[in-house]
Structures are given as structure tokens and as C-alpha cells.
Amino acid sequence: MTTAAERAALAAATTVHLPSDLGYDDARTPWNLAVDQRPAAVAEPADAAEVAAVVRTARAAGLRVAPQSTGHSAAALAAHGLDDVLLLRLHRLRGVEVDPVRRVARVLGGTPAIDVVEAAAAHGLAVLHGSAPDVGFVGLALAGGLFLYGRKRGLTTNSVVAVELVTADGEIVRASATEHRDLFWAVRGGGGSFGVVTALEVSLFPLPDVHAGLMIWDASRARDVLRTWARWAPDAPDEITTTVRLLRVPPIPDVPDVLRGRDVVLLDGAVLDSDERAAELLAPLRALEPELDTFARVPAAAVARLHLDPEGPSPSVSASGSLAALPEAAVDALLAAWDREPGLLAAELRQLGGALGRVVEGAGALSHLPGQFLLFTVGIAPSHDDAVRLRAQAEGLVTAMAPWLTGRQYLGFAESAVDARVGYDADAWALLSAVRAAADPDRLFAANHPVR
Ligand SMILES: Cc1cc2nc3c(=O)[nH]c(=O)nc-3n(C[C@H](O)[C@H](O)[C@H](O)COP(=O)(O)OP(=O)(O)OC[C@H]3O[C@@H](n4cnc5c(N)ncnc54)[C@H](O)[C@@H]3O)c2cc1C
User: What GO terms are given for molecular function (predicted)?
Assistant: First the structure.
């Protein structure tokens, strides 16, 4: 890939692993173990200055640069080819500082979301995190970011107040509403095509505790539960956000007894209001008589683990889509597809609408998500053959929902390579392309969903 002089320059800039090095295999392994990413080199910078040095050196050596915090979205990145790419693993950039007076957290580029949740909680504050504690907070925020506070408070990306990033020239700049405004607009929802985010500032909000929990039904109740939930969800008040999953729980020790080895329907949700109001809002779901109902007031930080997402590396394949509506025929189609694809672990529906569906003044490239529901389905694939088989099953399930798909996608949930235009409206895409052409004309940066 490079000359001896270029290799020496990279090694002088930061910790680097080349394919011939012993440490290469460990360094290149992403969170998603189903992905065999083989870049030209892997760098593990310790701070923003090292990131800047390695960006300049990689450019001089003719390599492109792919920032990667955890590799939750490694499948989409690797699908574009990594032969000429230096993978910038950012896990050493880990840290959170909370300013409780301004209610802002400064989060380093490779920090897992749970660190931000816990640092904020120490001050009675909360952040708009996702369902997985170990997703990179910056990766989540650049993609959009939604979970159980979403219908009240919108996408995570709208709560970003500034980013510090290393540009394609190897400069460290700060982008905000008043500085490098084009870049600030583009990174909020536009992803990692514009630079390496070494730190980000995000707004927090007061929330020491919250009414949240799970409801569980046996899979034999799926049709009734899904039909009722799908009728209720679009008009529910913004204060409540829920997700519903069809789940085939493996018989493994790490899961709660009530779930182990069973086929279930699992709902999780949060209500940003009083306990009395929560009881009112949850009544139509309780009328479905769940066998387990854990909804109660809990410390807000507990919501970060409510979804039971796996922590630590895992081999997974998935497919996703955005649904305009979920009438009874769509529920029936989903259940039929779920029965046809027995290898899948979960088929999940996230409730959109509320603040997640509204245009936000002053937002970036992705202000909101169209559609009423996001569909995400996933399987665990220990081997390459499993991955091929399960990818076909996951795509088959989403294809079965074709009559109700919006045609748009939430790129945060797109774990295979897609044409990134499906993530935006036409005006936003045109502007994203223009900002990319100005900020990175040589397309130095490689991203999971590149803006071309
Ligand atoms: C189990 C699981 C649960 C999830 N739950 C949710 C959820 O609840 N809500 C939600 O909205 N999304 C969710 N996602 C999607 C997730 O937010 C995206 O995959 C996100 O891109 C992951 O970021 P990462 O940094 O962890 O992954 P990575 O694969 O490391 O990064 C993905 C892309 O983000 C960019 N990027 C990451 N860090 C930087 C940086 N510091 N500077 C520049 N670019 C960067 C790069 O372009 C990179 O290719 C989930 C994904 C998984 C696998």
C-alpha cells in the first residue's frame, strides 16, 4: 500500500497497524463480528492532534480515511471496499465533561452512549440516547438518533450544539450555529463524510427519573397486540414513545428468566409526564393484559438498558425500512413474513410521529423522520453462511412490507450499503452534496453512507 517512508510517517503520527503486523487483526475487529473489515491500515489515535496528524499523513500517502467509533455500522462501511482506506478507530477518544449550569455535555469522538447517560445522570440530567448502551454517541448523533424520548424531544442530532472536527486538510475546526455553519448543518444527520468528529457538545435536559418499563405477551397474542398498538400509536400524545418487537429469545443465560428460550411480543416505552398521566396513556396497552408489566418510575439512566440490546461485540445482520402506515393488512403481512423467516431474532417497530416527525427550525441535514413507524429486523450470524442466509431472510421480511414502505430510510438503521439519497429529501441531499464538494473535494473521507 505505501512506501517505507510513508509507513514511518504514519507510525510517527499515531499508533498504526498494517496487515503484516501482529496487532492488525485485533485492531480491525469491529463491534459487528459478522463483518470482516480489512483496511489498508488501522490507526488508533489518542487525541485530536493525533487525528489531525494521521489525516494529513494518510492523505499524503494516497489513502482515504474512515472514522469508526465502535463498528456498529461496519457492514455498510466495508461494503464500499477498504483496500485504499486507513481505518481510524476512535475508541481511545473516550470521555465526557458535563457543565450542569449550561446543561451541556462535551463528548469525545469515540465515547459509548452509556458514558454520556451516566455522566448526565450524576447531575439529574438526561441526554437523547439510543437503545444500545455501547453504540458510539457521536456515531448515533451524526446519523440522527432516536429512542424512547423521541416523540417528545425529537432526534438526538437536533440537540447537538457544536462539533469539533478534523477536516480533510487536517485542520481542527469548531462548527456551530455561528462558526463553519455549512459543516455544522451537514454533520447533523449527514454522517461521517465531512470530517473526523473528535468531540461534540450536546444539550441535556432535567430528568432524574422517568416512568418507563416493559410489557410482555406470549407470541400467540401477536396479532391482537400488534393490531391494537398500530391503531393506538399514530395518535398517541408526544409524551409517550414506545417500541414493539417480535422476539425469538435464545435459551442463553444472559437474558431474564421470563424471556429465555421463548417467542414473545415485547413492548418498551417511556412517558415524559406524571405517574397519573402515564397510567392514563398506558391504559389501552394494559387492556391487552400483558403477562408482565414493569412500567414504574425509574432512574432515567435505567432507560439506556431497557431495550435489552446486547453489550459487547456481536455478529448480526439486519434490514430496515420506514413505514407510512401499519393497517391490519400490514400487521398480517408482517406476521406471515416473520413465520416464513424462522432464523431471525427480532422484528422491531419503532413508533415515530410527534417531535420525531416535525420539521425543526435551525436543524441540520436531517431534522425529522417521515413515516409512522420504523421497521428493523435482525438475526445473529456466527458464520459467513449464516450471514448470507439471514441477510436474505431479513431483506425478505422488509420486502414483504413493500406496499407500506415510504421509500425513505433512516440511515442509522441501514446496516448494508444503500444509496444514501434514500435518507434525505431532495433539497437536503443537494445541499449535502454541495457541502461535501466544498469541504472534501477529493473524497478523502470514507463513511458507511457516503454523501457523494
Ligand atoms: C444494536 C444496535 C442498536 C442500535 N440502536 C439505535 C437506536 O436506538 N437509535 C438510533 O438512532 N440508532 C441505533 N442504532 C444505529 C446506530 O446509531 C448507528 O449504527 C450509528 O451509526 C452507530 O455509530 P457507531 O459510532 O457506534 O458505529 P460506527 O460503525 O463506528 O460508525 C458509523 C459511522 O458513523 C460515522 N462516525 C462514527 N463516529 C464518528 C466520528 N467520531 N467522526 C466522524 N464520523 C463518525 C462514520 O461515518 C461511521 O462509518 C443501533 C445500531 C445497533 C447495531
Answer: FAD binding; oxidoreductase activity
